[in-house]
Amino acid sequence: MARIRELVDIAIDEDPRAPCLWVPTEHWEDFLEAVDRVPNLIGAVIYRNKTIREGPPYSDITTRSPDHR
Asked: How far apart are CA 62 and CA 20, in angstroms?
Protein backbone atom coordinates (compact mmCIF):
# COMPACT_ATOMS: atom_id res chain seq x y z
CA MET A 1 0.00 0.00 0.00
CA ALA A 2 2.72 2.49 0.89
CA ARG A 3 4.56 1.41 -2.25
CA ILE A 4 1.99 2.98 -4.58
CA ARG A 5 2.22 6.25 -2.66
CA GLU A 6 6.02 6.17 -3.01
CA LEU A 7 5.70 5.60 -6.76
CA VAL A 8 3.24 8.48 -7.10
CA ASP A 9 5.60 10.72 -5.10
CA ILE A 10 8.47 9.79 -7.43
CA ALA A 11 6.36 10.53 -10.52
CA ILE A 12 5.38 13.93 -9.10
CA ASP A 13 9.00 14.74 -8.25
CA GLU A 14 10.19 13.71 -11.72
CA ASP A 15 7.69 15.96 -13.51
CA PRO A 16 6.82 18.76 -11.05
CA ARG A 17 5.18 20.97 -13.69
CA ALA A 18 2.65 18.35 -14.80
CA PRO A 19 -0.84 19.24 -13.58
CA CYS A 20 -2.21 15.68 -13.57
CA LEU A 21 -1.15 12.14 -12.82
CA TRP A 22 -2.87 8.86 -13.64
CA VAL A 23 -2.65 5.82 -11.36
CA PRO A 24 -3.45 2.37 -12.82
CA THR A 25 -6.90 1.16 -11.82
CA GLU A 26 -5.54 -1.91 -10.02
CA HIS A 27 -3.63 0.41 -7.64
CA TRP A 28 -6.30 3.10 -7.30
CA GLU A 29 -7.95 1.84 -4.08
CA ASP A 30 -4.55 1.26 -2.44
CA PHE A 31 -3.51 4.79 -3.37
CA LEU A 32 -6.70 6.28 -1.93
CA GLU A 33 -6.17 4.36 1.29
CA ALA A 34 -2.49 5.35 1.48
CA VAL A 35 -3.29 9.06 1.19
CA ASP A 36 -6.53 8.81 3.20
CA ARG A 37 -8.63 10.54 0.54
CA VAL A 38 -11.79 9.90 -1.46
CA PRO A 39 -12.35 11.01 -5.06
CA ASN A 40 -14.33 14.20 -5.69
CA LEU A 41 -17.41 14.36 -7.93
CA ILE A 42 -15.36 13.98 -11.12
CA GLY A 43 -13.38 11.06 -9.72
CA ALA A 44 -10.14 12.90 -9.01
CA VAL A 45 -8.08 13.36 -5.86
CA ILE A 46 -5.92 16.39 -5.10
CA TYR A 47 -2.60 15.23 -3.66
CA ARG A 48 0.53 17.38 -3.37
CA ASN A 49 -1.21 20.08 -5.45
CA LYS A 50 -1.75 17.63 -8.34
CA THR A 51 -4.94 16.22 -9.78
CA ILE A 52 -4.65 12.45 -9.49
CA ARG A 53 -6.98 10.30 -11.56
CA GLU A 54 -7.65 6.62 -12.03
CA GLY A 55 -6.00 5.36 -15.21
CA PRO A 56 -6.53 2.26 -17.33
CA PRO A 57 -5.61 -1.16 -15.95
CA TYR A 58 -2.02 -2.40 -16.23
CA SER A 59 -0.74 1.00 -17.30
CA ASP A 60 2.17 3.04 -16.00
CA ILE A 61 1.90 5.78 -13.42
CA THR A 62 2.09 8.66 -15.84
CA THR A 63 1.75 12.41 -16.19
CA ARG A 64 0.50 11.97 -19.78
CA SER A 65 -3.14 11.34 -20.44
CA PRO A 66 -3.82 7.65 -21.08
CA ASP A 67 -5.79 8.78 -24.15
CA HIS A 68 -2.70 10.51 -25.59
CA ARG A 69 -1.45 8.73 -28.71
From this structure: 9
